[in-house]
Amino acid sequence: MNRRLRRRYPASTVAGRTATGLSEIKDLMDIILETPINIPRIMSLVDIYLSQFSIPATFDRVTHSPMLLKIHVCIRGIYRIVLHSPSFRTDSDVHRQVMTFWPRLAPWCMYIMHYMVVEYADFVNSVAPDHLDYFANTPTYAVQYMYEMVSLDEVKRTLAISFPGLLINMTNAWIVAVEEHVPVCNYLYISIRKWLQDDDQSAYGDISRAINTIPMPRLMGCLLRIISYVQERLVPLPWDMLRNNMVMFFLLCSENHQFRLNSLLKHSVPWICRLITYVRHYLDKYPEEMERAAQHFTVSFAYLAPALEGAPEWIIQAVENRLIVSLAWYSNNGHRLSLPQDLNMLAVRRLFELLTTNTIWRSVLRPTFRSLRQVDFSFLDNDPGDRNTSFLVEKWKLLRGAVDIRWKFRCIFRQEAYDVCMNTETEMGECCDVRVVDQNFAPRHAKGIQTPIEDFV
Asked: At the top level of its lineage, which domain of life is listed (predicted)?
């Protein structure tokens, strides 16, 4: 670092003091937040403090609180340069100098995640009350700084070698943040979702090892908290806590990556459908909370769509727990939820496709037929003409048409043969040559198989 920049700081305000008073931290924050951003001054300040401190093995309130306050200033200063300074992207010298702080600040960020989030309860109980206000945002800035840096290709390429434990560290912090309701959990979710859904996951190291370190009881505990919202019928509903638990459980157990846990999915599908049902009834009583409930439907449908692809039995569970009735309610009230329609329509479209296609299975056809009889379809006649509503009307017509045709030609009596081939590759109502289709979907009379009475609807 340029020595002339260091001389711009009086010794009494930087290196001369060993104890850090809150007034000094306020002065340092004024330097960090001054406008325009004084990049040389911030980098000089950060370099001095990082050279002055080493990462401790534990956390002691008396010894380490003043040190962490200065590290907070360092992280916030570099993060402000990375995020808000055009010079970081246009000036190669500034970019190179700022990037030299990443290997020095990343271990501090991991230290903050462990002692200020994973051990959140002990940290809050041990820190002096007047320091808590300053420490409240420290994990947030640490996560945001790591997120911005890992988004850079030059950092991502070497992340698996430089910091192989970073993803494990942040995943553990995220789980505890959700359990303890630490405000940083939203930023942790955004970061971990980016890594798990990145096209080049190999850059982040062995992600499977990170996920496998999550104890099963903690994930099951997350599902149990979701179930408790249904069973306890809380009023008012804790929307933020509900959302945090749902997004964590759904991301770590989703169909979108190879770490899906089948046993948890099988247990979760009926409960998620019951939760949607409870939220529907809740909003019918308290319509003023519609906007707060919007994200619940987005997350739930986005989770159910890939989850139901696992097996027809999961579709049966969802239908028996009133998924079709919930979709009808959503179709009638979705315009009041202020949802990101284009994003949410992808999940709803997939749900309708799964329900329509899987009525070829009589075990799915029966509960689907019963559920459709419970729905008041008068809302389909009130089509306002907008694109999303027209799309829903079309999907409902396809589902009802498929169920009507397949129910009409179902086997009713013993020895009665199919007149309709259930193969999805053919037009509904027209049989096809069994030699060119899947034998499971061909009509029994075409295969010369006697239909046992147990198979009848």
From this structure: Eukaryota
State which H helix or E strand residue 330 sits in: helix 323-333
> pLDDT (tens digit, 9 = 90+) per residue, 3-20?
444 434 333 333 333 344
Contact 9, 48 (CB under 8 A): yes
* Cβ pair 241, 282 in contact under 8 A: no
3-state DSSP call for residue 102?
helix
Q: Between vectors from CA 49 to CA 46 and to CA 50, what angle results, nearest 5°?
A: 80
411: helix, strand or coil: coil
- CA 67 vs. chain centroid, Å, equals 34
Residues 6+ apart with CB under 8 A from 142: 75, 108, 109, 112, 113
Question: Which of 384-393, 424-433, 437-446 is most confident?
Answer: 384-393
**CA contacts within 13 A on the Cβ side of 139:** 28
- Cβ atoms of 280 and 289 within 8 Å: the answer is no
Q: How far is the CA of 416 from the CAs of 263, 434, 455, in angstroms?
A: 38, 18, 11
d(C-alpha 368, C-alpha 399), whole Å: 9
Question: What does the angle CA 204 – CA 207 – CA 209 come to, to the nearest 5 degrees?
Answer: 135
Distance CA 56, CA 278 (A): 48
Do residues 240 and 198 touch, judged by C-beta distance below 8 A? Answer: no
Angle subtended at Cα 119 by Cα 202 and Cα 230, rounded to the nearest 5 degrees: 85
For 353-402, the DSSP string reads: HHHHHGGGSHHHHHHHHHHHHT--GGGGG-----HHHHHHHHHHHHHHHH
DSSP string covering 155-224: HHTTHHHH-TTHHHHHHHHHHHHHHHT-TTHHHHHHHHHHHHT-S-GGGG--HHHHHHTS-HHHHHHHHH
239 near 296, Cβ under 8 Å?
A: yes
Q: Which two tokens stand for residue 110?
A: 């991991």
Report whether 48 contacts 6 (CB < 8 A). yes
Query: What is the CA angle 273-276-282, rounded to 5?
Result: 145
Q: Where are the domains of the chain?
A: 1-214, 216-408, 413-457
Question: Which residues are CB-contacts of 270 (< 8 A; sequence separation ≥ 6)?
Answer: 317, 318, 320, 321
In this structure, the chain runs to a length of 457
How many C-beta neighbours within 10 Å does residue 418 have? 17
How many Å apart are CA 172 and CA 188, to the nearest integer?
10
